[in-house]
Amino acid sequence: MRLIFSILVIFLFGTDVAGQKDTLKQKNDTLPERFYLLQKVKRDGITMPEVEIKEVTVVARTRSAGRNEYRKYERLIYNIKKVYPYALIVRIRLNQVNEELKSITSEKERKNYIKDVEKDVFAEYEDDMLNMTITQGRLLIKLIDRETQNTSYSLIREYRGKFTAAFWQGIARIFGSNLKEEYNAYGEDALIESIIREIDAGRL
Questions:
Q1: C-alpha to C-alpha distance for 128 and 110, rounded to whole angstroms
Q2: 0.70 cut: is pTM over it?
Q3: Which domain range does residue 106 map to?
């Protein structure tokens, strides 16, 4: 879908997001794939080892679904698997671009750098984005908010300005989308969040 692809390209430049923590392992590392890293934490004058435990989301048991509901669920899983990797790409590319921009002081060089990245992105992902459905595009907008902690509208406004953000919002509304839509993992998007966690855990 051309609209979503154009928005995706805009997302890849310029807005700061929280850096992601990377854990590097040596090639000769003999540690197993799953291990816990204990950290020393001082509380009330006493130093104790602690381990960070991943957050667990508890979702209420749903009623027995009919065939149509099950098909919708299967379709949602399909669509999430289709667009989730691109939301992760947006997060990673935002971090990469922002790191590069930190060392570029000239405004002209910054613009040239962004143009070069934009060309690379179009060449690499254009076909994939143009083949997305409207439903997948709307889902991608939500997942980008999930990964960057910013709505699509706020990302565009921050870097491209209010006028451009308003323009893209108007175009998105024509296609039934909303760039101001936020991801709510504990509300209307709880099912999406549950599916993503299953995907991350390798169970879907």
A1: 27
A2: no
A3: 2-16+65-200
